[in-house]
Automatic annotation (TrEMBL):
Region (Disordered), start-end ranges: 390-424
PROSITE patterns (alphabetical): CHIT_BIND_II, GH18_1, GH18_2
GO cellular component: extracellular region
Gene3D superfamilies: 3.10.50.10, Chitin binding domain, Glycosidases
Record flagged with keyword Glycoprotein: yes
Chain ranges of the Chitin-binding type-2 domain: 423-481
PANTHER family recorded: CHITINASE, CHITINASE 4-RELATED
One example of a Gene Ontology biological process annotation: chitin catabolic process
Amino acid composition bias (Polar residues), ranges on this chain: 407-417
Source species: Petrolisthes manimaculis
Signal sequence annotation: 1-19
The UniProt record lists the keyword Hydrolase: yes
Name of this chain's protein: Chitinase
Keywords on record: Chitin-binding, Disulfide bond, Glycoprotein, Glycosidase, Hydrolase, Signal
Length: 490
């Protein structure tokens, strides 16, 4: 046990020497079209210290659950994304590959029920360790959004710590890391987390210091402002990264265990009046969808920067802010708050000054990963790494030997047969929408008899299946898409 603990300390210290760069990967990006499609091999393994696969879920049997078996597993002629993801470590010997469980679409209630029962917790933990080891992951990122919230119970605050304690023991016994994605919203983190107790259990927290504002509000604002905007009043004075960082540190989390989250996307509105286009401008509707992400009120940085270059969007940085916003008049009246290279560099310098562990991004597939807007690919991530470390990006270390590693994970060759024809609810392998019901979707996998096996997957409360983006999304977002969910939208 002492040897494994020392190994984990070494792993983290190697990363902390120049700062961690935690890169989440939203695996559903593989279903996007055109230049937005992003698969495992599109990840640059040399620019991140930790890559996190999003997401696994929690099954009704309290075991960790693969959410898209056809994409993520090799079984039933699947695409082996888990194994391909962890195999990226062969290209960077210092890279750590983690599996995230949870996420917004998973909801909170089932995690609350699992954490409240010792037997259910053990079932979850045992199955998690087995899955991590089977696919050569280096640890777990727990992304329960959020204890005590969204159908959770007041007891979650205590039960979350108990779950963390038991996870830490089980994971560290196998030399695996435990990281946690946590809220930056004052109302949420004060209710959800016993910070000093969590600090004793985690190797790192990923502070989700974004989505602080968005189209669920009827006015414009920046979703990830570093500091309070001068005109903020009421609870809005707490909705900034600096407040969240200080609150977590003052609450008992060591600064060196905090990775500061930066969004590689923007939150967008449709302005009510084109003459008002600053902060707090009236905006009662989400902005239109981007061509790749297909989610109203949301655009990837790759979509925003392309619009700025090709469609003449106006870019401004408000007085008293560090981050840009962009708008386009008069046809679309779209207004997006986002981060660019200048603002992420400022945030990285801030993180360095605060002695934080480093940076985190959600998510790697919406950076300018093709280098269409800049002279290099993944410009925002690379800018953060350089600003935090004080040195330019260099190629990752490689294994100098040519002798095959007997412990290395290799993918077993398998033959993908012809895709079976549509059969009932299954039109193709993988995720399939239900054209008559957006409250669920179907997971379809090929079977040995040449047909499909289908599993029904419900969407969490207040979400509907986004048939353009192949995820469960906010109901108001899905219903803003023309023709989406005619039976489930008003």
């Amino acid at each position: 046990m002492k040897v494994l603990a020392a190994a984990l300390t070494l792993i983290l210290s190697l990363s902390l020497a120049e700062g961690v760069m935690v890169c989440y990967y939203g695996s559903w990006a593989v279903y996007r079209q055109g230049d937005g499609k992003f698969d495992v091999e599109d990840i640059d393994p040399g620019i991140c210290t930790h890559i996190v696969f999003g997401f696994a879920g929690l099954g009704t049997d309290n075991k960790i659950k693969v959410l898209d078996p056809w994409n993520e597993l090799c079984d039933n002629y699947g695409k082996c994304a888990f194994d391909r993801f962890t195999a990226l470590k062969h290209k960077n010997t210092n890279l750590q590959a983690l599996l995230a469980v949870g996420g917004w679409n998973e909801g909170s209630q089932k995690y609350s029920q699992m954490a409240a029962d010792a037997t259910k917790r053990q079932t979850f933990i045992t199955s998690t360790v087995e899955m991590l080891k089977e696919h050569n992951f280096d640890g777990l990122d727990l992304d329960w959004e959020y204890p005590t919230q969204r159908g959770g119970a007041p007891e979650d605050k205590v039960n979350f710590v108990t779950l963390m304690q038991e996870l830490k023991v089980a994971l560290h016994a196998e030399g695996l890391l435990l990281t946690v994605a946590v809220s930056a919203g004052k109302e949420t983190f004060e209710a959800a987390y016993d910070i000093p107790a969590i600090a004793q259990e985690v190797d790192l927290i990923n502070l989700m210091s974004y989505d602080l504002h968005g189209a669920w509000e009827d006015y414009t604002h920046h979703q990830s402002g570093l500091y309070m905007y001068p005109e903020d009043t009421g609870d809005n004075i707490y909705l900034n990264q600096d407040y969240a960082v200080n609150a977590w540190i003052n609450g008992g989390m060591p600064s060196t265990k905090i990775a500061l989250g930066v969004p590689l996307y923007g939150r967008c509105w449709s302005l009510d009046n084109e003459a008002e286009h600053g902060y707090y401008a009236p905006a009662s509707q989400p902005g239109p969808s981007g061509p790749f992400t297909n989610s109203p009120g949301f655009m990837g940085y790759n979509e925003i920067c392309d619009n700025i270059q090709t469609d003449g969007w106006t870019v401004e940085v408000a007085i008293g802010a560090n981050e840009p916003h962009a708008y386009h008049m008069p046809t679309s009246r779209i207004w997006c708050s986002y981060d660019d290279a200048a603002s992420v560099a400022i945030k990285a310098a801030y993180a360095k000054e605060k002695n934080l562990a480093g940076m985190m991004v959600w998510s790697i597939e919406t950076d300018d990963f093709k280098g269409k807007c800049h002279s290099r690919e993944f410009h925002l991530i690379k800018t953060m790494v350089e600003a935090f470390s004080g040195s330019e990006i260099t190629p990752p270390p490689t294994d100098p030997t040519t002798t095959p590693d007997p412990n290395a994970t290799t993918l077993s060759p398998h033959t993908t047969p012809n895709t079976p024809p549509p059969d009932g609810v299954c039109q193709a392998p993988g995720i399939n929408p239900d054209p008559n019901n957006c409250h669920h979707y179907w997971l379809c996998s090929q079977n040995a008899s040449g047909g499909y096996d289908a599993t029904e997957e419900p969407c969490a409360p207040n979400t509907l299946f986004n048939t353009m983006n192949y995820i469960c999304d906010w109901d108001y977002v899905v219903c803003a898409i023309d023709g989406a969910c005619p039976n489930d939208c008003p």
